[in-house]
Write a structure and sequence with these properties.
The protein has helices at 18-27, 49-66, 83-98, 117-130; strands at 3-8, 14-17, 31-36, 43-47, 72-77, 102-108, 135-137, 142-144, 147-154. By secondary structure, it is an alpha+beta fold. The chain folds into two domains: 3-63, Translation initiation factor 3 (IF-3), N-terminal domain (Ubiquitin-like (UB roll), Roll); 72-154, Translation initiation factor 3 (IF-3), C-terminal domain (Translation Initiation Factor IF3).
Length: 158
């Protein structure tokens, strides 16, 4: 590449020979970094490359810290879970959703209890209906192997 477009602080911006751009960078004890190689002519910037990388990592770290982490709490039922156990687990589910965690509720079918698929589905749909004020059902009950699962997402707080 015989010519480059030079940009940066304390430099004369414009198109110049590559050798001159390198000389300008060396004179300021900085680096010549190619920003846009596909442009005609390619765009190069005079910067301190180590400082640039440091600032970029710092920005990424700050962005990661701001990103919300999704916590998934699980509640397990059997196909023949009685009312008292159901109410007890429902209270826990409400706590989880109020704290902002996503809820994964599932019915585990052990051995021949797989014949009670309909009971499991009814139980999960009942749970979803009872938790309507606290969260939103993401998908209908789905059977995967020996588990029938639903996910409930917490409602956004105003």
């Amino acid at each position: 590449m015989p010519e480059v477009r030079l940009v940066g602080d304390n430099v004369e911006m414009g198109v110049c020979p590559t050798s001159k751009a390198l000389a300008v960078a060396k004179e300021q004890e900085l680096d010549l970094v190619e920003i846009s190689p596909n442009a005609k002519p390619p765009v190069c910037k005079v910067i301190d490359y180590k400082k640039f990388l440091y600032n970029q990592k710092k920005r990424e770290k700050a962005q990661k810290a701001k990103a919300s982490k999704v916590i998934v709490k699980e509640i397990r039922f059997g196909p023949n879970t009685d009312d008292h156990d159901y109410e007890f687990k429902k209270k826990h589910a409400i706590k989880f959703l109020e704290s902002g965690a996503k809820l994964k509720a599932y019915v585990f079918f052990k051995g021949r209890s797989i014949i009670f698929k309909d009971k499991g589905e009814i139980l999960l749909l009942r749970l979803a209906q009872d938790l309507e004020d606290y969260g939103k059902l993401e998908q209908m009950p789905k059977l995967m192997g020996k588990r029938m699962t639903i996910f409930i997402q917490p409602k956004k707080k105003n």
